[in-house]
Write a structure and sequence with these properties.
Elements: E1 4-8, H1 14-21, E2 30-34, H2 35-41, H3 43-51, E3 56-62, H4 66-78, E4 83-87, H5 92-102, E5 111-115, H6 123-130, H7 136-149, E6 154-156, H8 159-169, E7 174-177, H9 196-202, E8 206-209, H10 211-214, H11 219-231
Parallel strand pairs: 1-2, 1-8, 2-3, 3-4, 4-5, 5-6, 6-7, 7-8
Helix pairs in contact: 4-5, 7-8, 8-9, 9-11
Cytidine-5'-monophosphate is lined by residues 8, 10, 34, 118-119, 156, 178-179, 188, 190, 208-212.
Length: 235
């Protein structure tokens, strides 16, 4: 299975993004485009990133009635992105519909992964706001199993949950994990973080790294360090 580093492009304009991408002369990193950039710039930003030769994880976290998600996924699929996502909380029916919408007439489709419980949701908030009384880690695994049963390819999760997800959903079920920091770097607002090397050890297939690369003095060097630590077996 292809493991890779995905850079979270949390910029609020195309100009900022292109200034960042222009620094990369020798490599074409896999990029994550989220709501901020997509809502600011529209689908054109995705077309331009594709034209420049990057793979794209379009992180829009869809969650609506099955028919609406199916039709929205068909639109995203025609943009030729590589990974899309949705909320597993939308139910298995929504996830199955999403997969249908995503599948092109020739049978190909982008990978589809699910958000289980957002890492910003604590046990307390889940119990009080959502009336879900089960332990958070059990809920995460249950949602991952629902995603697997619906035919999805994997989940977004913490690197610390990757092993458990693999144990319950199988080795080929993808784990895409944010919350990655260099051992000597700033943590910022992330709470539970791991290094690229540790994420590899824990079973992550793709690590999503934002500020440690985008805010670095030398983003290309930071990206290369990340790739080396994650893929190259360096600590
Ligand atoms: O800058 P940083 O490395 O913290 O960026 C992590 C990226 O992953 C951000 O785009 C953030 O929205 C996303 N993310 C996350 N935690 C999740 C899901 C997504 O940090 N549970």
């Amino acid at each position: 299975m292809a493991k890779d580093v995905i850079i979270a492009c949390d910029f609020n304009s195309a100009d900022e993004l292109y200034a960042f991408l222009d620094k990369f002369k020798d490599e074409k990193p896999f990029l994550k485009v989220g709501m901020e950039l997509f809502y600011a710039e529209g689908p054109q930003i995705v077309r331009e990133i594709k034209r420049r030769g990057h793979k794209i994880f379009l992180d829009l976290k869809l969650h609506d009635i099955p028919n609406t998600v199916k039709k929205a996924m068909a639109v995203l699929s025609s943009l030729d992105v590589d990974i899309c996502n949705l909320h597993a909380a939308g139910t298995k029916a929504m996830m199955e519909a999403a997969l249908e919408g995503l599948t092109r007439p020739d049978g190909t489709r982008p990978l589809l992964i699910a958000v289980t419980q957002l890492t910003s949701t604590s046990q307390e908030r889940m119990e009080e706001d959502l009336l879900i009384k089960e332990p958070l880690d059990k809920v995460v695994i249950h949602y991952a199993q629902n995603a697997k049963a619906s035919g999805l390819d994997g989940v977004v999760c913490s690197p610390l949950e990757a092993g458990k997800v693999k144990d319950s959903c199988g080795e080929s079920f993808l784990t895409v994990t944010p919350g990655v920091r260099f051992a000597d770097g700033a943590v910022g607002d992330q709470v539970r973080v791991t290094t690229p090397a540790k994420a590899r050890e824990l079973g992550s297939d793709y690590i999503v790294v934002g500020r440690p690369v985008t805010q670095a003095d030398d983003p290309v060097a930071a990206y290369r360090r990340c790739v080396k630590e994650f893929l190259g077996g360096e600590n």
